[in-house]
Write a structure and sequence with these properties.
The chain is of the alpha/beta class. The chain has helices at 3-26, 33-37, 39-47, 77-84, 123-136, 155-166, 196-202, 215-227, 262-271; strands at 65-68, 143-148, 172-178, 181-182, 185-186, 206-211, 234-239. The protein is built from nine helices and seven strands; from the N terminus they run H-H-H-E-H-H-E-H-E-E-E-H-E-H-E-H. The strands form two sheets. Strands 1-2-3-7-6 form a five-stranded parallel beta sheet, sandwiched between helices.
Length: 273
């Protein structure tokens, strides 16, 4: 990857981070902290040449599937999808408004979203089914699923982990936004994961980790994962900070339900211009 392309990817991340803040400034009911931890993950997927997609035909059979399991934490996807042409830019100014397609929690009415993203813990199971169906069709398309580490407390996630391993679904790629903070506190104080990588490896997954705020590193690892077809499903543990870049929100135990004061958002938006 050229230095110019790397610089562009970093610039994209900064832009998406700023646009996510701007959305929350206009629409306070959106979940901001969970979205900020995932910015670089989605930028790498959609701008880094990882996913194959066609914005003009979002449900093309030739697309890679991207299941966003942590739907509440993907408001940062809105500016990405609008920029890529999945829907008009005007929709960004109708979030949570009558007649708009963009809600506080996304759903499949939005072009570019594959599944219903309300109740947590089901995305990996859906993605596992997609990977099995694609294999049955002899398709080489890949399936990616973005999940939060808090979701890994859900039993349904581990049922899917076992099923995917049993069937050697090497077209399946799990990205865990490991911000170590769930809705009501740090995950270590709720159900301690200790080491997700070791646990997934023990279940027969090919597992690796990365600094989830180094967008170039994330892109490189995802490209490697996608190319690898070694008979195992693959997982990436992305170490992130919930509320990344927002003072008083970043990595706070209750950041999931906190909202930055409007004047702080205005200050951050002005500084990031």
């Amino acid at each position: 990857m050229s230095s110019t392309a790397q610089t562009d990817l970093v610039a994209r991340s900064k832009w998406v981070w700023r646009e996510t803040l701007a959305i929350h400034r206009r629409v306070a009911e959106t979940r901001i902290a969970s979205s900020l931890s995932a910015v670089d993950l989605f930028v790498a997927l959609y701008y880094g040449g990882v996913l194959k997609f066609d914005a003009a035909e979002p449900l093309s059979d030739e697309r890679d599937r991207c299941v966003i399991s942590k739907g509440h934490g993907s408001i940062c996807m809105y500016p990405i999808l609008a920029d890529l042409g999945f829907f008009p830019q005007e929709e960004l100014h109708r979030i949570c408004q009558t007649g708009g397609i963009l809600g506080g929690i996304p759903d499949p009415v939005i072009p570019g979203y594959e599944t219903i993203n309300g109740s947590l813990g089901h995305g990996l199971g859906v993605a596992t089914g997609m990977a099995m169906a694609l294999r049955a069709k002899a398709s080489q398309r890949s399936v990616f699923v973005v999940a939060g580490d808090g979701e890994m407390h859900e039993g349904a996630m581990w049922e899917a982990v076992m099923l995917a391993s049993q069937h050697g679904l090497d077209g399946l790629n799990l990205i865990i936004d490991d911000n170590q903070t769930a809705m009501l506190g740090h995950t270590r104080d709720i159900v301690d994961h200790v080491s997700l990588a070791d646990r997934l490896t023990a279940f027969g997954w090919d597992c690796r980790s990365v600094d989830g705020h180094d967008v170039v590193a994330v892109q490189q690892v995802l490209l490697e994962m996608k190319a690898l077809r070694g008979g195992k499903p693959k997982a990436l543990i992305a170490r992130t900070l919930k509320g990344h870049g927002v003072p008083g929100l970043e990595n706070q135990p209750l950041s999931h339900i906190l909202a930055p004061k409007p004047e702080l958002l205005d200050q951050l938006l002005e500084q990031s211009q």
